[in-house]
Amino acid sequence: MSRKIKIATTSLAGCFGCHMSFLDIDEHIMELADIVEFTRSPLTDIAECRNNDIGLIEGGVCNSENVHMLQEFRDNCKTLVAVGACAINGGLPALRNTIDVKQCLQESYVTGMGIENPQIPDDPELPLLLDKVYPIHEVVKVDHFLPGCPPSPEAFLTFIGALIAGRKPDLPYELLHYD
Ligand code: SF4
Q1: 90 lines ligand 1 (CB under 6 A)
Q2: pTM over 0.90
Q3: CB of residue 145 inside a 6 A radius of ligand 1
Q4: How high is the pLDDT of residue 143?
Q5: How much is the pLDDT for 1?
Q6: Residue 61: per-residue pLDDT
Q7: Which of 11, 52, 132, 160 stands the most exposed, by the fewest C-beta atoms within 10 Å?
């Protein structure tokens, strides 16, 4: 029996909506389970990220921890996929890109409406915010892009099915969405 394809997934600055859409493939997840092993992923809670065939990245890059995670995935996944609008172009989190980081933090934690005990969090364990939210291909090399917010379950199935079969994913027009 040939070995299973190892897939790792993560969410950077994302909302987990892409992960939820992937899970919406319903019973097809059982078919995938016969040929795929999910390794590091919120779906498995496995933390180690080593020797994966495919890495699926949801979300843009907004802080130092995201950069570290993304580089770890690039180093440990033969094929890296930007999944969803946030990974591809920054998406909703990138709406902050027109505002200075200091101003963002000031309004979020000090001057915004309904704030009690105003204070910008400064625990040294908190990852540092980047100056803006970056699409992942501006930080590491990305092999494929799966658009949508989120991509539909059918798009996930078709796209990942092609990758598993060793083909270049080529989604039909009706599965291509950018919203
Ligand atoms: Fe959420 Fe849409 Fe971003 Fe996916 S692309 S993480 S569904 S906001």
Answers
A1: no
A2: yes
A3: no
A4: 98
A5: 53
A6: 98
A7: 132
The residue whose CB lies within 8 Å of the most ligand 1 atoms, and thus the one to mutate among 11, 24, 57, 58, is: 58
Question: By alpha-carbon position, which residue is closest to atom 6 of ligand 1?
Answer: 14
Answer for the pair 135, 60: CB distance below 8 angstroms, yes or no.
yes
Q: What is the dihedral of CA 8, 60, 164, 5, to 10 degrees?
A: -10
Beta carbons of 85 and 38 less than 8 angstroms apart: no
pLDDT for residue 82: 98
List the structure tokens of 65.
């921890």
SS3 state of residue 156? helix
* 57, 89, 134, 149, best to mutate for ligand 1 pocket (most atoms within 8 Å of CB): 149
- The encoded tokens of residue 153 equal 């379950």
Q: Ligand 1 mean position to 85 CA, how many Å?
A: 6
Question: Parallel, antiparallel, or unpaired: how do β-strands 36-38 and 61-63 relate?
Answer: unpaired
Q: Give bridge partners of residue 129 from the DSSP assignment.
A: 63
Distance CA 129, CA 60 (A): 12
Q: For the chain, which residues score pLDDT lower than 50?
A: none
Q: What secondary structure does DSSP assign to 63-114, as a single string?
A: EHHHHHHHHHHHHHEEEEEEEHHHHHH-TGGGGGGGS-HHHHHHIIIIISTT
